[in-house]
Each structure stands twice: as structure tokens, then as C-alpha cells.
Amino acid sequence: MGKIKQPEPVALIVGMISASPELFVVAGDRLKEKFGELNFISSILPFDATDYYCEEMGIGLQRRFISFERLIDPGELANIKIFTNLLEEDFSLNSKRRINLDPGYLSLSKLVLATTKDHQHRIYLRDGIYAEVTLRFKAKKFQPGEWTYPDYQTQAYLDIFLSIRKLYVERLKIRRKLTYAYKNYYKEF
């Protein structure tokens, strides 16, 4: 029988899609209020791999990714997706979203995205929220699965996730050193 243990904390990321790049800043500020300071902001990229959102959100869509300094428990993902859905509603106009917020997390071995859509490769979390391993980290690079969205397979996105992963690795090193020092300090008492 395996011993139950707490998972290592992960890096929270949010992908944002909008035809109005100024919403990236406003939504980013709201996300910072909830999840803390950002440690990564990508450049703005064209979002043209699909026209899935065009009817609702318009043409000329763009994408930005952000990640946060504070690491999270991966079990928080469903709550975070519920929060970002409410935030999308706050920014909606005439019942149409003006920004799409896709939260997920990055661990040492994978990039996981939250979604409200079920599919054969997605795992149900709770309250209508599913999780998908979108990319796996193997042989020192992120690798897509057969279901990975086309834009998440581009070199531009993969480079972004490698940059976020480097920041994450540094945060883990600091955290581990602090935990080790804390445990050793209290061993003396």
C-alpha cells in the first residue's frame, strides 16, 4: 500500500485571450488581488490557431500568459477555474465574453489545464470542472499529447512554458531550502 502524502506545490498559470489587449492588464490586476504577485508576463501573441472564439469575442484575438510568484496546491485548480469563470462574466458585455481566462498549473513533469468540457482524456475534479494534462515534460522539453491544442504545440508557447518552469524550479529550490532549515532548527528543541 502506498503512503498518502501531500503533493508538491505547483506554479499557477493563466492563459488569456481577448481582442482587447488592455483587458489583459485589468484582468491581470484582478488575478493578482486573488493570487498574489506575478513572476512572469508573456509578450502578446496572435491567437489564430482556431476561430472557435471569434463569434463570441470577435476577430483579431490575441493571447498572453501569466504566472504567479506564490505556488499553489494542485487541488485548488477547480476553485481557481470557478473564480476565473466568474471573472470572465464580470468582463462580459451583452452576455458575450470579452476575455477568456484559462487557468492551469505547471509542475516539474507536466502542464495541466482546467476546463468545463468533458472528453475522453480529461479527469473530473468537481463542480463541473475537469483537468487535462496538456503537455508533459520529458527529455528536458515539453511534449504534446495527441489531444493538445495546436497553439500549445507551437515553439512560442513551448518557450513560454520553459521560461515559467525555470522560475518554478527556482521557487522550489528556495522552498526546499527554507523547509530544510526550518526542520533542522526545530530538531534542536
Could you explain the architecture of this structure?
It is a single chain. This protein is an alpha+beta fold. The protein has a single domain, classed as Alpha-Beta Plaits, CATH 3.30.70. 34% of the residues lie in helices and 31% in strands. The chain contains four helices and nine strands. Strands 1, 2, 3, 4, 5, 6, 7, 8 and 9 form a nine-stranded antiparallel sheet that branches. The radius of gyration is 18 Å and the shape is globular. It starts with 9 loop residues before the first strand and ends with a helix. The model has no long low-confidence stretch (mean pLDDT 93).
Essential attributes:
189 residues, alpha+beta, Alpha-Beta Plaits, 4 helices
Question: Can you give me a brief rundown of this structure?
Answer:
With 189 residues, the protein is of the alpha+beta class. Helices cover 34% and strands 31% of the residues. The chain has helices at 22-35, 54-57, 77-90, 155-187, and strands spanning 10-18, 38-41, 45-46, 62-72, 99-106, 110-115, 123-126, 129-138, 141-144.
How many domains, as an integer? Answer: 1
- Identify the CATH class: Alpha Beta
Tell me, rounded to a whole number, the average pLDDT: 93
Q: Output the helix-strand order.
A: EHEEHEHEEEEEH
CATH level-two architecture: 2-Layer Sandwich
CATH names the topology as: Alpha-Beta Plaits
